[in-house]
Design goal:
The protein is of the alpha+beta class. The chain is built from 6 helices and 6 strands. It starts with a strand and ends with a helix.
Length: about 220
Amino acid sequence: MDRVFAASLRPFSEVKHVAVAIGQTGAGQYHIGLIHREAAAPDVLCLHLAWHCRLMNEPASSLVSHWIDMPTPSRRAQQVAARCRQIWKANGKSSIPYGFSHPSDSFDSVSGRFLLGPTRHGLTCASFVLAVFHFAGIPLADYATWPTGRSSDREWQESVVQLLQSRAAPEHIAAVTEEVGAVRFRPDDVAGAATQVPPVTFEVANSLGIRIVELIAGASAAPQY
């Protein structure tokens, strides 16, 4: 996978405009975000939805260990990076809730504000990345090909609802509970999609995502010097 790099070997500072970054956070759990930089800026930042109402825009941490050099033309990559900055400025840290809503049309086309509403209750770290690219006019995933009811997806969603019990308002918990069973966009699948020219089908994204997980596992098992 010649587009996937370990940050320990090729640092995030090599990202020219934007890249998808992924890392392992626990057994079978992965986190994904967007590495971006402003034109001519010396530093890169990672924009990611860390948890419920915790949008972060910070130097890349141990949450992400690998990044994907996407096959995106430079002008389009700059456009995505600009959308990252717009979303951060428009929403700030506490405006995007956690939920299982679809990533399409998640942000206001002018302001960049998250469109919380009757059918949109929140995003995950993976669907947030998809939503940013969709907002930039570059849908990464062929959404119609993503299946529902995959093994462990419902169990994972139910575990998220339990974690939200002490962290979210009752009305938000009720809305997210109604979304249990919705399509789940997993971080590894989204990372797999980022290696290809979009939009990418589930079959392709999933097979590449499995390979990325193997790369991450291999890197974490490698001896440290």
